Amino acid sequence: MPDGVMGTSADADATSREYEPDIEPLVAAAAPQVGLNHAFLGSLGDLLPSGGASAQALTAEDQAWLQALERVAHGYDLGYELITDAGEGPDTLWLVPLH
User: Fold this and answer.
1) 75-89 pLDDT per residue, tens
2) Residue 19, pLDDT above cutoff 80
3) C-alpha angle with apex 85: 72 to 64, nearest 5 degrees?
4) Which pLDDT value is given to residue 9?
5) Do the beta carbons of residue 70 and residue 80 sit within 8 Å?
6) Nearest 5 degrees, angle CA 49-CA 93-CA 23?
7) What is the spatial distance between Cα 48 and Cα 16, in angstroms, rounded to a whole number?
8) Which of 23, 53, 64, 85 fits a disulfide with 15 by CB distance 3.0 to 4.6 angstroms?
9) CA–CA distance, 47 with 11 (Å, rounded to integer)
10) Rounded to an integer, what distance in angstroms lies between the CA atom of residue 31 and that of residue 78?
11) What is the residue range of 26's domain?
């Protein structure tokens, strides 16, 4: 399938679940640092399957990876924030407490 095109929602869900074992240790390591604030997870270019550094250029696989991150983070009662730096630096992901 071409980049940016995902099949059925079942395909997307299956793809995102494939990423969970890789994401689990990242979240487990950062989760204790969240407390009442947030913890740095990493820059997009280092984390996303495509290696893309911009939130504006997410591929379908990147979106599946972010869905997996959300599921894993929720298992720790956390969420994530995607911080974009508008060309002044890398876009980054942070773990945050659920509101």
Assistant:
1) 999 999 999 976 678
2) yes
3) 30
4) 67
5) yes
6) 50
7) 12
8) 64
9) 21
10) 8
11) 9-97
